[in-house]
UniProtKB/TrEMBL annotation:
Protein name: Methyltransferase family protein
Gene3D superfamilies named among the record's database cross-references: Vaccinia Virus protein VP39
């Protein structure tokens, strides 16, 4: 630490490559490079292919700056990604587009004499619905006769999850959430037996890959590289392999599955008057405070209110539990060219925990999601009644996404509302005596100042605008 960086904080997820490490300094994202990595960076920065990728927005904007932090030969400053997400929070189409970008970058790098050390899905983030490659330290000069070092990671964190979704209709998210390094080839092999083993991509990238790993389990990396060189592996063959992977990944599409929640706007029971009044209230709440850098829409469904928030916020993170709904929203946002909304798949009653090394390598959703505005519309009753989360816990959880001055826009669905009655019909009688509007208002007041309340015309739902006290 020097006087130039009095509050330098190491990024917990950046420690596996000793040649470089990411740090945070205020709002700046920095990367320290050792002597060899600094020389490789300068060669990379001077290349035409890299400049073209940055100009196209495919790679995060990066410049060398000074002075370097202690122990490092050089320091880079990266553009700040609006919100860091994890692959197990993405929809199928998002993971597929991220995989295609990774392969596009590698295909551009190889003819220019570069490759990437890694193939992890965690090397990619999002500007809205546009994927961007962020691991600049992964670029390294290619050596003829050597395979892509990131192939195994690419399979485990990108290709295999896509194969599960496209070929078996399985949700890949539980796998990636449970295993930070992704799905092993041996696990995939056991799921693709019989006729399944002949589906596109499976013979080569699952069964052959698994067999090669088992055969070379005791061989050193240098020995494997030597075998490939002796077999005639070349840069041209590497490029051809990447082209083949691109063709395969493009085929691994999966249309959004049918879901009750896709039609929720039509079936949720709002009258035309309720809907119009709710939108007016939310719009006014979004413009009532200072500049909004980050807004959260918790329980976003089809993104109606996320789109409203995007008119006033630099970035909106729209969280929805149903993968099919998020996948459709993502595709719609891509088609519209919307750049301010990031849709994510997450069960709000079981949000993403911290994971990886020491539980902090991949930060929890709660630790990442500190927002200027939090929208919680038609979500409290689903948590409190549908998932049996005590109302004080729900309110404290919502308040935890903010800081002093954060605006919370929240909807309380009264017990007599048709949706509440539907949820209560499957519960024991009088199980939720504390689920009352007066109690909800009392709890809100313990976390901030209730500036406005508004009863929708139907009379069974109330909207609140709260300024949190932190």
């Amino acid at each position: 630490m020097t006087s130039a960086y009095p509050e330098l904080r190491a990024e917990p997820a950046s420690f596996r490559d000793p040649a470089n490490r990411v740090f945070h300094h205020g709002d700046e994202v920095l990367r320290g490079l050792d002597e060899r990595a600094a020389a490789e960076w300068r060669a990379l920065a001077g290349s035409d292919f890299f400049a073209a990728l940055v100009a196209a927005g495919k790679v995060c904007d990066t410049v060398e700056t000074s002075p370097a932090p202690p122990g490092w030969s050089a320091v880079l400053r990266h553009e700040r990604i609006p919100f860091v997400s994890h692959p197990y929070e993405w929809s199928h189409a998002m993971l597929r587009d991220a995989a295609l970008l990774h392969l596009d970058i590698l295909r551009a790098a190889l003819p220019a004499g570069f490759t990437t050390k890694d193939g992890s899905a965690y090397n990619l983030q999002w500007r809205g619905v546009e994927p961007v490659f962020v691991d600049i330290g992964s670029f390294t000069p290619v050596r003829d006769g050597e395979p892509w070092a990131g192939y195994r990671q690419f399979c485990q964190t990108l290709l295999y999850p896509l194969l599960l979704g496209a070929h078996l209709g399985l949700d890949f998210r539980p796998w990636l959430r449970a295993q930070v390094d992704g799905i092993e080839a041996d696990q995939m092999r056991r799921m693709f037996t019989g006729r399944r083993r002949f589906r596109p991509g499976v013979p080569t990238h699952v069964h052959l890959h698994d067999a090669m790993q088992r055969r070379n389990a005791r061989a050193s990396t240098a020995e494997v590289r030597g075998q490939l060189r002796d077999a005639g592996y070349s840069r041209d063959l590497a490029v051809a392999t990447i082209r083949g992977l691109q063709r395969l990944v493009r085929r691994l599409d999966r249309p959004p599955p049918a879901s009750h929640w896709i039609d929720y706007r039509r079936t949720c029971g709002y009258t035309t008057e309720d809907r119009a009044a709710k939108e007016c209230f939310v719009d006014a709440a979004l413009t009532a405070g200072p500049r909004t850098r980050l807004a959260l829409d918790l329980g976003a469904n089809d993104g109606r209110y996320a789109r409203l928030a995007a008119r006033h916020a630099e970035q909106v993170v729209a969280v929805e539990q149903d993968p099919g709904v998020v996948d459709r929203l993502y595709r719609d946002l891509r088609a519209e060219g919307t750049q301010r909304i990031l849709p994510l798949v997450m069960d709000l009653a079981d949000p993403s925990p911290g994971g990886g090394w020491r539980g902090v390598e991949r930060a929890s959703f709660t630790n990442r999601a500190r927002a200027d505005v939090v929208l919680a519309l038609a979500v409290v009753h689903h948590l409190a009644i549908g998932r049996n989360v005590p109302l004080p816990e729900v309110v404290a959880w919502l308040a935890g996404f903010g800081r002093s001055g954060t605006r919370l826009v929240v909807e309380f669905v009264h017990p007599e509302d048709p949706m509440s009655r539907r949820l209560l019909a499957n519960k024991p009688e009088n199980i939720f005596p504390g689920y009352r509007r007066d109690e909800f208002e009392r709890l809100l007041a313990t976390h901030g100042h209730v500036e406005e309340r508004f009863h929708l015309p139907s009379g069974s739902r109330t909207l609140y605008r709260v300024v949190l006290s932190g």
